[in-house]
Amino acid sequence: MFNNLSDKLDKALHVLKGHGSITEVNVAETLKEVRRALLDADVNFKIAKQFTNTVKEKALGQDVLTTLQPGQLMVKIVKDELTQLMGGDAAGINLSGTPSVILMSGLQGSGKTTFSGKLANYLKNKKTKKPLLVACDVYRPAAIDQLHVVGEQIGVEVFSDKGNNDPVAISQAAIAHAKANGHNVVIIDTAGRLAVDEAMMTEISNIHKAIQPQETLFVVDSMTGQDAVNTAKAFNDVLNFDGVILTKLDGDTRGGAAISIKSVVNKPIKFIGTGEKMEAIDVFYPSRMADRILG
Ligand code: GDP
Predict the structure, then answer these.
(1) What is the number of the ligand 1 atom nearest to the C-alpha of 108?
(2) What are the helix and strand counts (H, E) for the chain?
(3) What is the residue-averaged pLDDT of the chain?
(4) Which of 105, 110, 114, 122 to probe ligand 1 with, by most ligand atoms within 8 A of CB?
(5) Is 248 a pocket residue for ligand 1 (Cβ < 6 Å)?
(6) Positions in the chain short of pLDDT 50
């Protein structure tokens, strides 16, 4: 890995300064460090390149050449741009429905079921919310059991209908159940597959059309790097989802997928998963992620 990027840029520009004035060429050199940091963080190559071009323009426009601490100014520009690129302020979720229906989508193993539980727990702890979890993976009985285990753990009711293989019907029955029993949030956990395929897309699209959720969230494993971008694009093409959940950020990924995904689908990252426990959920803050990516 690399040292703190801020120190590196400071050092690079200071040395250059000692040898006379800093030129555009020197700025370009330091931008190479920035690009390297982004690539190390698994940001898509094209996006890293576009990004450094934008930073270059800003840097030259903001008198980086004459400032006393050019490295620090460069880091500030880089950080501000990264934060902007990842969505600026943290984005909330729409809980305006009665009940508010939240549809979870994503590949198998991305962390959908775990995150459904985390979100239910997070909302339950807000006191005004009474969530209902819904098991809609009709192919894997083990997935239904897993959601029941999660529900028991956090004290949230789980709606399921083992044997029924129609996820649209299950979702609709769950929403009716929620209305009848005072649940104001319904979180629907759906079936994922190991890779994007048509059957999965048709199924989730049918559920989406039938229930018209307030929020459709796409869950993605941050460790999957470049694949995460392609998967995000495939799901967004079909669902036009509202937000992204980036899981497994407790691993050693620097989280470059956050930038790539945001750049490609232009949807906010709303929450992150930082562990297997039900409490390991955090609102996504672009500026914190920028710090992590810059190291
Ligand atoms: P699903 O198939 O999309 O429903 O995925 P699961 O919720 O079953 O998660 C797959 C695996 O990833 C499980 O072993 C989870 O415990 C684990 N997992 C989910 N979220 C996180 C996370 O944020 N961090 C870590 N370390 N593991 C996670």
Answers:
(1) 2
(2) 11, 8
(3) 87
(4) 114
(5) yes
(6) 1-2, 19-21
CB 237 within 8 A of CB 212: no
Distance, in Å, from the CA atom of 16 to the CA atom of 181, rounded to the nearest integer, reads 69
- Ligand 1 centroid, distance to 110 Cα (angstroms): 6
The rounded Å distance from CA 112 to ligand 1 centre is 7
How large is the C-alpha radius of gyration of the chain? 22
76 burial (CB, 10 Å; 0-12 / 13-18 / 19+) is middle
Mutate-to-test residue for ligand 1 from 144, 150, 276, highest number of ligand atoms within 8 A of CB: 276
What ipTM describes this predicted complex?
A: 0.99
241, 272, 294 from 155: Cα distances, Å: 28, 22, 39
**Contact between 170 and 138 (Cβ < 8 Å):** yes
Q: Is 254 annotated as a binding residue?
A: no
The rounded distance, in Å, linking the Cα atoms of 198 and 87 is 30
Is the CB of 279 inside a 6 Å radius of any atom of ligand 1?
Answer: no
Whether residue 250 is annotated as binding a ligand: the answer is yes
Token output for 192: 């994922």
Q: How far is CA 35 from CA 45, 65, 81, 148, 288, in A?
A: 9, 19, 13, 45, 19
Q: Kindly state the tokens that stand for 217.
A: 């969230």
Give the pLDDT confidence score for residue 262 in this predicted structure. Answer: 87
